[in-house]
Amino acid sequence: MPITDHYPIPPSTQDLPVPIDSSAPLFLCFIAGTDPATNASWCPDVRAALPKLQRVFESETAPKLLYVHVGQKPEWKDQGNVYRTQWGVKAVPQLVKFQRIGGEVKVVGQLVENEVLDEEKLGAFVSA
């Protein structure tokens, strides 16, 4: 499945593009914004995670992955950041797995920071 960058986050989880008639998961990965001076993420953990995520999600049979940028460092550090307050993001990168259960979109798992960097754990999480 393709990876979508700069996904515009909807108002709620129920508006995520999770298949209605399937148990197929959808993954959102909350990542740090791109530093205009370097054209790379300002967060070293995100820079380290991106190639691993690419490898795990690059096959045609992989589930869909959407990258959500949480902003530049000052925006992210603000405790009122919308991703912190409305989406429960505690750190970046944070990979969240959603599935439709009983007609509702639910969080069924997540990996945070160093867990995303563990390629074996990442692969098992995505394929489970």
UniProtKB/TrEMBL annotation:
Q: Where is the Thioredoxin domain?
A: 23-110
Q: Which GO terms describe its molecular function?
A: protein-disulfide reductase [NAD(P)H] activity
Q: Name one GO cellular component term.
A: cytosol
Looking up SUPFAM superfamilies in the UniProt record yields: Thioredoxin-like
Q: Which PANTHER family match?
A: 42-9-9 PROTEIN-RELATED (PTHR12452), THIOREDOXIN DOMAIN-CONTAINING PROTEIN 17 (PTHR12452:SF0)
What's the family? Belongs to the thioredoxin family.
Q: What protein does this entry describe?
A: Thioredoxin domain-containing protein
- Organism, scientific name: Curvularia kusanoi
